[in-house]
Amino acid sequence: MSINLSVKIGKLKLKNPVMVASGTFGYAEEFKDFINLKELGAIVTKTITLNPRQGNLPPRTCETPAGMLNSIGLENPGLELFLKDKLPFLKKLGIPVIISIALEDDPREFVELAKRINKINALSALELNISCPNVAGQKTLISQDPKATYQTVSSVRKITSKTLITKLSPNITCISEIAQAAEAAGSDAVSLINTLSGMSIDLARRKPKLAAITGGLSGPAIRPVALKMVWEAYNKIKIPIIGMGGIIDTLSALEFFIAGATAVSVGTVNFINPKAGVEIISGLKEYLERNKINRIGKLTGNLKI
Amino acid sequence: MVQIKNKIIYNEKFKGNYWHCIFEAPLIAKIAKPGQFVNIKLSDGLKPFLRRPFSIHNISGSKLEILYEVLGEGTKILAGRKKGEYLDIIGPLGNGFDYRRVDKPSGQKTILVAGGIGVAPLLFLSEKIKAKDKIVLIGAKTKKQVLCEKEFKNSGCDVKIATDDGSVGFKGRVTDLLKSILPALDHRLSILYACGPNPMLKALSDITQKNNLPAQVSMEEHMSCGIGACLGCVVKTKNGLERVCKEGPVFNAKHLIW
Questions:
Q1: CATH of the structural domain A7-55+72-196+219-298, one choice from 3.20.20.70, 3.20.20.140, 2.60.200.30, 1.20.140.10
Q2: Is A132 an annotated catalytic residue?
Q3: pTM for this predicted structure
Q4: Which of these is catalytic: A132, A230, A254, A278?
Q5: How far apart are CA B37 and CA B221, in angstroms?
Q6: Cβ–Cβ below 8 Å for B227 and A30
């Protein structure tokens, strides 16, 4: 039986539905010794801002039960240096490259970023990171407010005809409300979920383990939360959902498809098992063969209640 | 660098709370350099969740050795792993020490300074440096925690010891021991390599810079991926924040900002 793993996200056609999550895969080159990068469905870059950012002071990460906290603070070289130093390697891979972008303080930064990215053919899509919990001074996130989400996504939608993905925060009351705002504003897909806010304490010193005190929780610890949000959003929106949050293997990826995801992103597991993404791709194929399902799309939202 | 499962061929306590583990790891052994590290998945489950980084203590043929202190959850699990089991190892990682200068015919004096478990990467370095004029200063709290004295002697080092309680060797910090031998050294013809706790490395940076003594220190910061992707393990340098796992773990002392 021939198995069709391909999926569509906006204008983007992915040969398989397994991508790597922003911030967990650097700019891909870091992983070239471990896997054949060309096998991945798509690569989402570490988040890029208009200007370079040094990020937060260390310690920036710590381990937690079945997960980890990070507060990197969006360290990145800025758009120009990304295009000059990081993009040439990504371009050669010949698979879709999705640039994750964030703004620092002025909403117009997104418009400026989108305008410049429009001219770059090697970038297939944009993921709006309006849900990073680690930027000092930002007390609320754009994706914590449906109106702000709508306005931000609309402003970029007007500028770009590239595939537009909006990455949402789980640190909210009602995910479907935010997902609907992104959909109404013209987002082609939503990425669910970014990290959950959290903290951890070093008892011996009675100090927070992270210099920034709080950070974003990721890993299998957050998977049930992520799954529930994918399922809730799936019931309310028509655009595709890219599911992520604690996926570490084929079985955990499958849960996301059944909850309503069209594609999945592997994140924190890349730090532990750089081969996880490609292992999941072959694992999904085997699962579909074994269950005589010819197309991954048939699993999406196939939850029996 | 490779990600590969390697067989444990030895994993025993060797002194106090310190353990010695040897893997049959031909691919890593072939390319490893002193000062580099390996990142090891200690269990098949989620506990511990992240890999743990270990300095490469020595390489002999196809064998990779690490030295560790049983302190937290991860090292307790490692101490429970048995000979014959396989662990998933990524390595070798990081830049390693630059010791080309000391092996030039002009010959330089090599000073190794180790604090506690900081002996781990320095033994491999000592084995690799062929120049004869080598001295190691080993610092520990008490006599019971002085590590690898014999191994350093066998690698051709003159060994000096400092203990906090004076139970063996110089009484006081290893950095004070260094200060006491500095007047007799030609600083232009010496180079210092160090590994140990951050306060020790900071003190060494001050001493070596005041004395114009070139120094390379192996740094530690909480690490998640070990391959330069997560940007977690950064330290302050004159070029901004740099990753311990990629630009380091070995830094020129004068490049760091404390």
A1: 3.20.20.70
A2: yes
A3: 0.96
A4: A132
A5: 13
A6: yes
